[in-house]
């Protein structure tokens, strides 16, 4: 999957007579972008006015042009050369532009609705004056949405601020100063604390200081990748192998590991056949209303489309979870569908000590549990609850749809407050990883849900989705702007290899890897593309290893090669201080927003030895050969 430098274009040509050279165009609806293609070096644009570009950045360009194209810079501001990425080209906007990090002022432009929501969520800090990156006369708040990418080789930083820009610095000192000032400003804007060592210790904890700042490195954690790393010698495009249109909006899909998978639609389930070349429609539809009550999960007669379907009992049953109220993310219960008969056979409500409660999400007891025919329990998660539910009735009475029965809370813990759980996933042995709104990632073993064995501190962004490898050695956490790949392995005092699920890692934690989009991709279509649903390829057998990582972002799916990401000598990591980020990936683009992306089970290998990638939009399901 190559390096990312050539994808963005180099900024090392200062010839004033050369035109800007082409960079790769954004993929069309059926193309993908391969981040190892050759592009040239950007150079100054043809002699024309900045307002001639038909881009959403015209106002900013006018400001920058009027302030900086004459080579002047505000007093006290450092200088750099400014480029903008326009219509597939890097073009010089200013030969010498002033830049600095400054406090927000009352004269700064008003925030949009999303920014206001973000600001108001910082309870007790509404009047805080944020640090801003000022370039010329334009300012942008310092946070992860800037998508800052530093290149020490080119003395360059790329960023997103109503467009994609690049600053090329005249010296290493200025480059390092910008990097250090950015990290300090981001820390203060995120945690509302001065970036002192004492405050960083307060935020990260003594054991995780090196983990959060990227200073705890150990080549042995990544050495497996060095032995099996494979670098493609030539470009091989992803090939779409199957396409299945949907008659109505796709909400999600439940991937099966046996014969079938299922599309969850507005009206029911579309049954799909699992093939080595992808998922193929069968023409069979199971309607939710057939043979039972609508799956509201709380005994209501109001139909609400399920947001998720969870396969159980050897994939013969599906648990459907629906919002308790329109616009809400929690549910008061689940409905049980018998796939063989197409009938709703039970409706269950969540209850603890006789009191109705809600759940944000449910998942299987372990990563391969849906394949087991005797499965009768599953896990539930809410903001402050982590528990296991049992479908077996203690009195041995078959449940009646007319009177939803309460599930048995068999084990778990209801935390007093403050956990803000958002998502969870299970490893092959039933260990649990939980992501929270405050950005923390907690690891729970198989013996207790009361206290996490290991808790990784926040890097500053809420965790929206988590996954874990079958062996529990790696965790993948999704935020809006990046993925966090965490190694859970460590050696105890006797030298025995363990994971953070089975013991407290203490100070034996190693810095994570961040997986990010290039700024030109993060701002594709002129708007920020939020990442969602990051996961590993699907393995359910000891000794097998996951091959890929996949995430959805707006209208495209992004795939990383797991071995390349783990390779400590990969080009993206060379010369990087602090946390290392990987920008080498493949892209599958679609004409509309992607609902879900996932790899099929490892048993469905094609001739190339890879499992198909499945991508769902609201209107269709597509399978790709990787």
Automatic annotation (TrEMBL):
Signal peptide per UniProt: none
Segments forming domain Vacuolar import/degradation Vid27 C-terminal: 305-573
Compositional bias ranges of the Low complexity kind: 22-31
Listed GO CC annotations: cytoplasm; nucleus
Gene3D superfamilies per the UniProt record, alphabetical: YVTN repeat-like/Quinoprotein amine dehydrogenase
Occurrences of domain DUF7135 (ranges): 66-205
Top-level taxon of origin: Eukaryota
Pfam families per record: DUF7135, VID27
Region (Disordered): 1-56
Protein name per its UniProtKB record: Vacuolar import/degradation Vid27 C-terminal domain-containing protein
Native source organism of the sequence: Ceratodon purpureus
